[in-house]
Design a protein that fits this description.
Blueprint lengths: L1 H31 L2 E2 L5 E10 L4 H4 E3 L11 E3 L2 H6 L3 E4 L2 E5 L12 E3 L1 E4 L6 E9 L6 E9 L8 E6 L8 E5 L15 E2 L1 E2 L2 E2 L13 E4 L8 H5 L3 E8 L2 E8 L5 H4 L13 E3 L13 E9 L1 H7 L9 H5 L9 E15 L9 H27 L1
Parallel strand pairs: 4-7
Antiparallel strand pairs: 1-2, 2-21, 3-8, 5-6, 6-21, 8-20, 9-17, 9-21, 10-11, 10-20, 11-12, 12-16, 13-16, 14-15, 17-18, 18-19
Helix pairs in contact: 1-8
Amino acid sequence: MLESRTRGALLCLGLLSLGGSLRAKSLSRRINSIETSNNGSTFVWTIEDTYSSENFFQLFNFFTGSDPTQYVALFYTDATTAFADGLAYVDGGVVVMKGDNTTQLAQGQFRNSVRVSSQKQYNTGLFILDVLRAPWGCGVWPAWWTLGGGIWPSTGEIDIIEGVHDNEHNQVTWHTGPNCTMTPTNNMTGSIVDINGQPNYDCNGSDNDNSGCGVTEWSRASYGPTFDAQGGGVFAMKWDEDGIAVWSFYRAAVPQDVVDGQPTPSTWGDPVAVLLPGGCDPITNFVNHSIIFDITFCGDWAGNTYNFTNCPGTCPEQLMNGSNFVNASWNINSLQVYRKQTLQGVISNGAHPDHILFRFHAWLQYLLAVILATVIVHYY
């Protein structure tokens, strides 16, 4: 009888120890996600909002009408039309938004497409998009971006994913009011976009034909057919008092901390692009931003650059055949927005209390398991 009780107690001890070990590992991952700001404060990124197939279309509004840029050849549909025509739907847990790829048009007619913006506005955050497919193709100009409330560009615009035609490289761009410039740095992997043969550091959206200050990512897995072919990936934009930075990861290279929902940007290496606070205040120049996904056809960028590509004919001619746009589709797994949770009293006597906390937690789990096992043996 005693032997049976002992085995039961040991089994209980083992299960409790296993539970403690799993909780300790979870705590360890959380500890490893602790970050430090440039001002010395410590924090973790905690989830604020998750947009997925369960709620995406309830939390984004459809923009209707023509695109506000020039030379466009599309019409953004309302929600009812988009759902009825198969331009917006959920497929197996994936959010899908695309341009019309079936209708044959006469020259000069507009092709239907989709543009949505989040109902919620943000002022700083960590935005992580897991996307299976992003739009591309001749005459296509898609973007994932954020736009400030008020008069453009005084409250800022951040283009996180943007490209045209069959490009293979993503471009990150900031558009602001005056007095905002990029600070030259070696701590990013992209290249600053040239204007007239010189790197353009001026982010003022009213200068240089509204071009803003852009950075080209040179990975072929960041945009276009290669990005889609290898299963898409993850894009992240960190916006806080230390600046605005963008990373991209192809599917096989997504960091484990992102997968675990405990993102730690300081471990991701240099970003693709970064706008540092020394030349541009990231708080005052970017205000009340909504998140936007769109698929534009032709337009300022795609229309003006069409003749410099390998695409056939002209952009208006390309637009007539719906089958030219089978790749003009956003297929989104999720979009998560994290906010900073500041930690208090992080440094004490030169020791980092996260290590102390971890050791104490593990010791406490073991102690409780021993006490409970002893009680079982004694009373049963």
